[in-house]
Amino acid sequence: xxxxxxxxxxxxxxxxxxxxxxxxxxxxxxxxxxxxxxxxxxxxxxxxxxxxxxxxxxxxxxxxxxxxxxxxxxxxxxxxxxxxxxxxxxxxxxxxxxxxxxxxxxxxxxxxxxxxxxxxxxxxxxxxxxxxxxxxxxxxxxxxxxxxxxxxxxxxxxxxxxxxxxxxxxxxxxxxxxxxxxxxxxxxxxxxxxxxxxxxxxxxxxxxxxxxxxxxxxxxxxxxxxxxxxxxxxxxxxxxxxxxxxxxxxxxxxxxxxxxxxxxxxxxxxxxxxxxxxxxxxxxxxxxxxxxxxxxxxxxxxxxxxxxxxxxxxxxxxxxxxxxxxxxxxxxxxxxxxxxxxxxxxxxxxxxxxxxxxxxxxxxxxxxxxxxxxxxxxxxxxxxxxxxxxxxxxxxxxxxxxxxxxxxxxxxxxxxxxxxxxxxxxxxxxxxxxxxxxxxxxxxxxxxxxxxxxxxxxxxxxxxxxxxxxxxxxxxxxxxxxxxxxxxxxxxxxxxxxxxxxxxxxxxxxxxxxxxxxxxxxxxxxxxxxxxxxxxxxxxxxxxxxxxxxxxxxxxxxxxxxxxxxxxxxxxxxxxxxxxxxxxxxxxxxxxxxxxxxxxxxxxxxxxxxxxxxxxxxxxxxxxxxxxxxxxxxxxxxxxxxxxxxxxxxxxxxxxxxxxxxxxxxxxxxxxxxxxxxxxxxxxxxxxxxxxxxxxxx
Length: 698
What we know:
Blueprint: E1 2-4, E2 11-18, E3 21-27, H1 28-34, E4 53-57, E5 100-103, H2 112-122, E6 127-130, E7 144-146, H3 164-167, E8 195-203, H4 205-211, H5 214-236, E9 238-247, H6 276-290, E10 298-303, E11 312-314, E12 325-326, E13 332-333, E14 336-340, H7 345-356, H8 402-414, E15 421-422, E16 457-458, E17 463-464, E18 490-492, E19 503-504, E20 532-534, E21 537-539, H9 541-548, E22 567-571, E23 578-585, E24 591-592, E25 596-599, E26 602-604, H10 608-618, H11 620-653, H12 690-693
Parallel strand pairs: 8-9, 8-10, 10-14
Antiparallel strand pairs: 1-2, 2-3, 3-4, 5-6, 5-23, 7-11, 8-15, 11-14, 12-13, 16-17, 18-19, 20-21, 22-23, 24-25, 25-26
Helix pairs in contact: 4-5, 5-7, 10-11
């Protein structure tokens, strides 16, 4: 509820409940812009010089004649993402007529294609091929949408949402495991403490034009989100907070800008407009290119371009999906939805966001307990249009059905990505600072939400009552006496003794500490079962195939390197040696690729050592022979080195031994005495001295 505090023109705008009746209040001018032909015609707003207010309630007294409700437009037949039997939300997938398969069979010939397949097989990289379908073309993108009644409907109604016969008929008579009949009313899987999902909201030119100004459009958007947030907070303990608004100019461009291709006029305007389904696809592509840096877990587009009978459309189970995926039909999916302007557009928005959370439609008349819709109970299927997820809403729909509650809590626990569900207060939100929306905003001590009694928090002022320091409605670590729980109180029990530790309150905070898990990949469970810890669960890839592939009799996962992503890939039990790839992801922490781990549906690569080790273990038929050959080659190399060294040593020891050469004796040339000179004449009679003394040496 928002009040514009002008003493000359006091205006209130919003929704409220009184005596279990939903009431709406809007300025007269705003009401005139969004009223339908079946609404009462108040006095022209120009007759009220100081403005005026219109107050009306949702009545359950009048239901439209089914003959007056038009059938859904045929555009939905072109989309099949949400009705795909392999969708993660449905726990019992149908046979793989529309699933992807992986072929491990050897090539039958030596063509180029078969050689490529052979090399892929040799290297442990399976080739991909689509499964054969009995139909000529299988589309993968079916969206959920809401449908209004024809303009000449006589009774005051909300908007007709598609009948089940036109929405998810492909599932037909599926098993009851796909319609959440066994989880009716269960809140197991929903947060035990307050959480918030941040969203972004865009408004195209047609929506802003409906409200005349950008400020008026912003006001309407924030009022819508506040109403939606209050319902989600009281039902699932999850609030909705806007962190980014993208409100366009009321004048539609002749040609859209490249960064906002969704901002175009409606079809038939002569400017190449987009219908609701195509607008969703273009908006999803924009969201994927924008990336997740904005912190928004969902993006929602407000428009005034209903497509025939459709007034809302959203992708099923795409919570926290910030990237976009394009199918072979050109449709683009992401965490997005579109709501067209109506008198009660907040209910359309709540319905579409419910689909993002994984909710399927409630069952309507003509249903069966085995149909793929949420039944009223285990013995009755028709919900009579009493709840928000009803395909035909003609009554005071301000609550989710018990089956929808079990549906959403179950998918939050086991199927959809919940990485964007965070504790409140982590960042500022764009809001009208409204007490009662379930979000504790600046200036508030607490916020129990709409129509909620609290002994600790005054719901009129969102301030603590005297002596209170916390409110149990805003966190699990607050006691009924409005005081913090002791540090010994367990606020989050252990889900598995080996893989998940219990968390205890801090003694000074209302919130439970972050969940702590054992290391992913740690052995757990009975010996020999191959179970390992993954995000607090003791499981294995085989166990996850068994859980998700009941209808297909899947019991064994394909090799860890088969898909290089986190889609559940299981061995086809028909014996074709194929892998059936489901749209469900392996739980976070599961092994993927070669040495990687699944994180938020993506495979995060491990270290080089882990990658090499995982490849070796996953391709033993290749790695063992290679290892043997490499070992033999290494041994041969070592033997060659050893032999070389030995031969060198042998040649050295067997070489002939030679005595060192004797230095030659120098040749002595005898010295001959000089020729004897004849004696001096005076010595002629002397005796020759050489006879006694030898030759004379010189």
